[in-house]
Structure formats: structure tokens, C-alpha cells
Write a structure and sequence with these properties.
The protein has 359 residues and is an alpha/beta fold. It has twelve helices and twelve strands. It has a six-stranded parallel beta sheet with strand order 2-1-3-4-5-6, with helices on both faces. Strand 10, helix 9 (271-278) and strand 11 form a beta-alpha-beta unit. The radius of gyration is 21 Å and the shape is globular. The two termini are 13 Å apart.
Length: 359
């Protein structure tokens, strides 16, 4: 029986706040836990090695905490491999490299990035730790093409670089039905910065719609909720705020939607795009790095083109057959590479080989 040690230094799969990062971590654990291989996955630590401000004192404390955690896990042992999700300069893996080396097991990373411009700055020590961890990894899976280019450029000679498509935690697609009205769905965390920027663009798009009798439902919550509500206030009761939704309530929101409008300002990739497409909801987004990894070309318009986004929505509503073809295309796109079975095969094609080499 194989046991995989899993660790997510940025955000534990058990973190209370919904996010794409948390969902991806949960999905990876599901993909690694393969009953056909008699394999289980242990979430071995919930130490969050995150420093968002570049504070040397915070970083020093996390280095100390990680040292103690590594010693605890080395003493415990019993794993066949170690997998770390999302190692980067603000949240480096300070535990896995030490434990894997001490236990002589494969060390694997998923969604690692290198940030050489952060060296000699406030995150210098963390950036160096993240780079060292990536250097030790026997394999790194990238989830976007952009990250893959950088990882291959700096990979040690014997390191394996593989593409793991972002994926949903499900084996197949949900039941699909065409919605009866013109409901736009916007879904994202409400926080300052890029998320608020996406909401700002979305509000501008609504002003340019030509099709009448539309409605908009907004799913999400956060510290910038007041700012988001102010952006959509001019539309009155045509916009409904549903708050943070999960499970069946979130699924129901996708069932009601006839289009997902989410510009995707600086999204790493955006799990919401996969969720919408799986439900047969056509997407309108900006053509941006990362977003391109989870959307077909038909779903994207030039970055910053408000009119093009509004026109794309009007076109979906203008012809029922066009909406249906986009919905079918969206589901087929997710079915091909973005469900749990495809992710499990990608991970185990590499992991099984590494575990055999270390046996």
C-alpha cells in the first residue's frame, strides 16, 4: 500500500475561505488517492508559510516553525512520496525538501513558480528557499503554459517537467439544460486588487449591452463587497447579490445562468471558468495568459475591450442555435482534459515511475 504525503504551503485544503487555490489542492488530493493503486493521501501539515508583506521577522518565525515541523514528520515517516502544491516566493515549501531527503522518497511539486526578480528584496530569503525547493524536485507539474516555459528554462538537467491541466473534482459532467431567461453570472472573491478590477470591468460591460430584460447574479463575498455593490448599484434590482455559495447552491447558480461574465484580470487560470463550462454555461472573458489555459478561443475577447465583451453576450442571446453550440463546445472542452480521470492519469504516469526508481 502506497502513502503519499501532501502539503500546500499557501493554503490548506481545509482552509475555510473558498478559492481556486483551495479547490485545486483538494482536487490534487483526490487525483492522487487512486483506489486502483491501493494508494492513500495524507495531508501531513497545515503550517501556512505565507508572508504577504515581505516581513523578515515573519519569515524568520516561519523558518523556525518549519524546522520543527520537518523534524516531527521525519520522525513519523512511512510515506512513499511527497507532493507539494503551489511553492512560490510568498509561500515557499520549507518542509517537504528536508523530509523527502531524510526519508529518501521522491519529492514532487505542482504549480511551482520561480521569481528571480524577488531576490535581494524583502522576500529574498523566501524566494531563495522556493528556488531551492524547486531545484530539489524530481518532477514539477505546471498548470499553465506560461509557467511551463519558465520552469523548463531553469530546470536541473534530470528534472521532469509535465503539464497538468487545471481540473474539476468530478469524474464526469453534470446534467445540462438550457436556461429559460437571460441571466448573467459573475463569480469571484470580493477583495481589492485584481478581483475588484474584474468586477469593475464587468460593471462597465453591463452598461453596453443592447439586449433588454437581462438580469445579473453575483456570487462572492469579501472585504471589498461594499465597493462591488457600489459598482452595480446603478442597475438597481436587475442585479442580485447571492453572497458566498458552495455545493448545491452554487450549482443552482450555474443552472440559472445563460452566460458567465468574468474578465479574469491577472487570474492564474480561474476554476470558475471550468465550473461554468462543465455546466454548459458559455463564458465571456478577456484574452489573458492563464485564462487561455482553461478557455477556448471563442470565449475570449481582446483585453480591455468592453464593447467586444458586451457584443459577445448580445450575440449569445441573439441566436439560440449559437448559444447551444457554444454550450456544447464548452462541455466538450472540459471533458477532454479538465476532469479528475485525466488529472489522475497525468499525475500517476510520472509518479509511478519515480516511486519505482526510488524503491
Amino acid at each position: 500500500m502506497a502513502r503519499i504525503a501532501f502539503y500546500a504551503p499557501l493554503k490548506s485544503p481545509n482552509h475555510p475561505n473558498p478559492s481556486g487555490d483551495r479547490e485545486m489542492a483538494r482536487g490534487i488530493m483526490d487525483a492522487l488517492a487512486d483506489p486502483t493503486r491501493d494508494c492513500t493521501v495524507d495531508l501531513v501539515s497545515e503550517l501556512r508559510s505565507y508572508d504577504g508583506k515581505g516581513d523578515s521577522a515573519v519569515q524568520a518565525g516561519l523558518f523556525k516553525d518549519a524546522e520543527a515541523e520537518a523534524e516531527r514528520l521525519i520522525a513519523k515517516g512511512g510515506w512513499s512520496a511527497w507532493v507539494t502544491y503551489h511553492n512560490y516566493y510568498k509561500a515557499p515549501d520549507l518542509i517537504g525538501p528536508k523530509v523527502a531527503a531524510a526519508l529518501n522518497i521522491p519529492y514532487i511539486q505542482i504549480e511551482a513558480t520561480r521569481a528571480y526578480k524577488r531576490l535581494d528584496g524583502p522576500w529574498d530569503q523566501f524566494a531563495r528557499a522556493a528556488h531551492a525547493a524547486s531545484d530539489q524536485a524530481q518532477a514539477i507539474f505546471h498548470v499553465t503554459e506560461r509557467d511551463g516555459v519558465s520552469l523548463r528554462e531553469h530546470a536541473p538537467e534530470d528534472q521532469r517537467i509535465a503539464h497538468l491541466h487545471p481540473f474539476l473534482r468530478r469524474d464526469d459532467l453534470p446534467v445540462h439544460q438550457m436556461p429559460s431567461d437571460r441571466t448573467i453570472l459573475c463569480l469571484g472573491m470580493m477583495r481589492p486588487g485584481d478581483k475588484l478590477a474584474s468586477y469593475t470591468v464587468a460593471a462597465e460591460v453591463l452598461k453596453h449591452l443592447k439586449t433588454p430584460d437581462w438580469r445579473c447574479e453575483i456570487v462572492g463575498d469579501g472585504t471589498a463587497r461594499a465597493e462591488v455593490e457600489a459598482l452595480f448599484a446603478p442597475f438597481g434590482d436587475r442585479v442580485t447579490f447571492l453572497g458566498k455559495l458552495e455545493g448545491p447552491a452554487k450549482d443552482a447558480a450555474f443552472d440559472r445562468a445563460s452566460v458567465l461574465l468574468w474578465p479574469g484580470v491577472n487570474e492564474a487560470f480561474g476554476m470558475v471558468y471550468l465550473e461554468a463550462q462543465a455546466a454548459g454555461v458559455p463564458v465571456v472573458a478577456e484574452n489573458r495568459p492563464g485564462v487561455r489555459d482553461v478557455l477556448p478561443n471563442a470565449a475570449m475577447v481582446p483585453e480591455g475591450d468592453i464593447t467586444a465583451m458586451a457584443t459577445a453576450i448580445d450575440r449569445l442571446w441573439g441566436a439560440r442555435h449559437y448559444w447551444a453550440s457554444r454550450a456544447t463546445q464548452a462541455r466538450a472542452f472540459v471533458q477532454q482534459n479538465h476532469l479528475l480521470p485525466a488529472a489522475r492519469k497525468t499525475l500517476w504516469d510520472v509518479l509511478e515511475t519515480l516511486m519505482g526508481e526510488n524503491a
